[in-house]
Amino acid sequence: MPKDTLTLPTATAFADDVLSHLRVTLAKRASGATRHDWRVALSLAIRDRVVEPWLASVDRTYAANGKRVYYLSLEFLIGRLIEDVTINLGLEDVAREAMESLGQDYQSLVAEEPDAALGNGGLGRLAACFMDSLSTLGIPAHGYGIRYEHGLFEQHFKGGVQIETAEAWLAEHHVWEFERPEVRYDIGFGGHVDYDAEGRATWHPAEEVIAQGYDTPTVGWQAAWVNTLRLWAAKPIVHFDLEAFNRGDFIGATASEALARTLSRVLYPDDTTEQGRTLRLKQEYFFVAASLRDLLRRHLFEGHALSELPDHVAIQLNDTHPALAGPELIRLLVDEHGMAFAEAMRTARACLGYTNHTLLPEALERWSEGLMKQVLPRHYAIICLLNMESLDETGIAILENGSVKMGELAFFMAHKVNGVSALHTELVKETLFADLHRSYPDRIVNQTNGVTPRRWIHSANPALSSLITETIGEGWVSDLERLRELEPHVGTASFDEAFAVAKRANKARLSDWVARETGMALDPDAMFDIQIKRIHEYKRQLLNILETVALWNEIRDDPNGGWTPRVKIFGGKAAPGYVMAKSIIRLINDVAETVNADPVTRHLLRVVYPENYNVSMAERLIPACDLSEQISTAGKEASGTGNMKLSLNGALTVGTLDGANVEIREHVGAENFFLFGLTADEVGARRTRPGHARAAIEASPRLKRVLGQIANGLFSGGEARYGDILGMLWDTDYFLVTADFDSYYDIQRQIDVAYRDRAEWTRKAALQTARMGWFSSDRTIAGYAKDIWGAKSLL
Ligand code: 26Q
C-alpha cells in the first residue's frame, strides 16, 4: 500500500483543504457558510484522502487476478461516516484541530450528519461490519445493495404511541458516494418467454428500468485497503417518451418512470404487511440482476472464461432476500452465454453461499408461484427445473402448496450454507433444514457473528480505547484478541480504577444527553440497565417491563429495603404493521410515565425510552451500559450482535442460553454472566403443555399482581388499554414470558446485590472487555474467507 497516502497533513494544510472545498466545490466564502456547508466541505476534504488508497486497491486487485467476494444484501445499516472514515485514516486529531482553527466545533458538526439507515437491524448492521472487516483484512470485495431514497422510518412517540415518519437522508447531497452514470443495466420484469427450434429460451420483458450504480468507498483500518459498496438506484429507461406524449398518451409516457420511482424508493421495514409484496419481489430481482451483470461484465473484461467463474467469484447471499441470484445466474449463463443447463447449475452453485439469519417461521420467505410467474416468467421456469433437480437429488421440493420456498432454493443453489452462532447452526441442522442436511451433510457450517472494533469500541468509546492503548499498546484495534493482554492488569487497583473512571465518564456523558433530549435528570451512579434492539415478542421487552413493574411494587412495599438504584433504558422500533410490538412500546412508555413520577421510588428506579433508536444512538448508549439485556426466548435469537457490542464495552449480560449468548458466556466465564430461563429444549417441551401460561401466572403472585395492575388501568389512566397483551399472556404466551418471569426476577435481585460490590463489579466488567476479542468481525470474515469463499488477503 502506498504509505504516503497515510502521511498525515498538518492541521493548517487540512484546514486549507476544507476552505478550498468551501470555495471551489460549494462556491461559498467562510463568512457566508452554513453549518451544513462546513460539514460538506469537511467531508470532502476527508474523502479526498480516500481516493488514492481506493484506486490503489483496485489496481492491486486487477494485478492479483484472484478471487473477489460479492456480498449481496438488501440492507446495509451504515450510520454516520465522517467519524468512521476519519478514524480509519488516523485523521481525527488533525480534523478536530483544523475545524477549531476555522472556528467550527468538530464534534457537533460530526453529530449533524444524518445516519445512512439502509437497514432494519442486526442483518443490515452485520453487512456494514462485514464491509469494514473485508477492507481491514484486504480482501477484494464489493457490497451490492439498493440505494434507497428513504431508509428506515423515523420513530416518534405521541402519547406513548409509536408514530412513523419518512426518513430522507438523501434530501441533502450525500457526499460519500460517487455517481457512476456509465454503470447502467436494463432490468426487465414480466412479459413472456420464446423458444427457438433448439429449445433456447429468450425472455421478452414487458417493462424495463435502468439500474444505475453509486459507489461508496469502504475504508479499512489505516486505509491500507479500500473496497466498494455499490448501491443501485432505479432510473426510467427513457426520461420522457415525447412521441407517446405527442400522441396524447400521457399515462404511457410515464409508465417506466413510475416503476423506476418506486423501485428504489423505500426500505421494507419488515414482512408483516401483505401490501406492496410485489414491489419487494421486484426490488429483490432488481438488485440481484444488476449485481450479477456487473460482476459478469468484470469477469469477462478481465479475459476469463465463464467456466472459470468459481475461481474468481464468490457470491454471498445475506439471507434469502437475494436468493434469485441462483436462477438469475443460470439464466444469464444459459440464455445469454449459451452454456448447458447442467454446467450452469454446477457453476452457479460453486459461486454461491447462503447465510441464514432466522428460524422464525413467519420470517422465512415464500413467494406465490403465480406472482413469480407473472413478474419473472423465465426465472419461474428455471425454478421449476431446479425443483425437479432437487426432488431427484434429495426428494425435497422447492415448490410447495403453490409457493416458492426461498430457503430451500437458496440452500439447493449454494455450496455452503451457514448459521450465525453455534447454537443457531445446530438448530438449522436439526430443525429448519434437517432433511436437506441429511442429503448434504457437509454443506451447513457455522460462522459466529462478530462486530467491527473500529466503530464499536475504538470510535464509540474513546475513554476506554485510550485506557486500553495506554495499557497494552497499539495494535489491538485490528487484532482484537490482543485484548487478552489486559487480563493480567484486571484486578489491579490502578487499572480497575481507571476502567471505572472511563465507565463513569461515559455514563455522565449519556446522562447529559438524556437531560437534553428528555429533560430527565439521571444519576450516573445508578446501574444503567439497557435493552436496545428491534421490538419483537421473541426478544421479550415485555418480560423486562413486567419485571420493572414488579420491582417498583417491591420498592413501594419497602422503600428502605436497601435497593440498588437502577435506570432501565429501552431503545428500538417496531415494524409499522406489528400491532403487538406497538402495544408493548406503549406499555413501556405508560409504565415510564407512572414510575418516573413516583416520589417514593424516583431516586431508585427510572425508565427511559428515547425516540428513534438508530446506529448513532447505539454508539452513545453502548459505552455507558452496566447491564446488557439479552433475554430472548431460547432458540429464537439467531445470534444477536448488540450482545457482543455491550459486553465488549464492559457491560455484564443478563441473558438466556440463546444465540451467541452461549458463546459469549463461554468466553467471559459462567461466573461473569447472569444466566436465567428455560433452555431451547425446555422451551419446546413447555410450550406444548396445555395451560402452561395460566399455571405460571397462578404460581407467581408477583407476576399476577403486575398483570392485575395493568388490567385495572393503573398505567393507562383507568382505561383498559392492554387487552391484547393480557390475553396473549394468559392464553397463549408462545414466547414463554410467564414461564421465565420468576427466574428473571430472581436473577435481577442477585444482580442488585452484585452491583453494590462496586470493586467486584468493575473487575467483572473489565474482564468482559479483556475476554471479548474473539467477537471481532475480522475473525468472522477470516472464517468466511477460509471455509466458504476461498478468498485471500492482498495486504
Ligand atoms: C422479509 C420479507 C419481506 C420483507 C422483509 C423481510 C425481512 C427483513 C429483515 C426479514 C428479516 C429481516 C432481518 C432479519 C435480521 O435482522 N436478523 C438478525 O440477524 C442478525 C445478524 O445475523 C442476528 O444477530 C439476529 O439474531 C437476527 O435476528
In short:
This protein is an alpha/beta fold and 795 residues long. Helix content is 48%, strand content 15%. Helix 1 crosses helix 2 (35-64) and helix 11 (325-336) crosses helix 12.
Question: Which helices and strands appear, and what pairs or packs with what?
Answer:
Elements lengths: L10 H15 L9 H30 L3 E5 L3 E4 L2 H8 L2 H10 L4 H6 L4 E3 L3 H16 L3 E6 L7 E5 L2 E5 L12 E12 L2 E4 L5 E4 L2 E13 L6 E11 L5 H5 L8 H9 L13 H25 L7 H4 E6 L6 H12 L4 H11 E4 L10 E3 H7 L1 H18 L4 E2 L2 E3 H8 L2 E4 L2 H11 L1 H6 L4 E3 L6 H7 L2 H11 L20 H26 L8 E6 L8 H17 L8 E6 L7 H18 L8 E4 L6 H7 L5 E4 L11 H7 L3 E4 L5 H8 L5 E2 L4 H8 L4 H7 L2 H11 L11 H9 L5 H20 L1 H14 L5 H13 L6
The site of ligand 26Q has 21 residues, from α6.
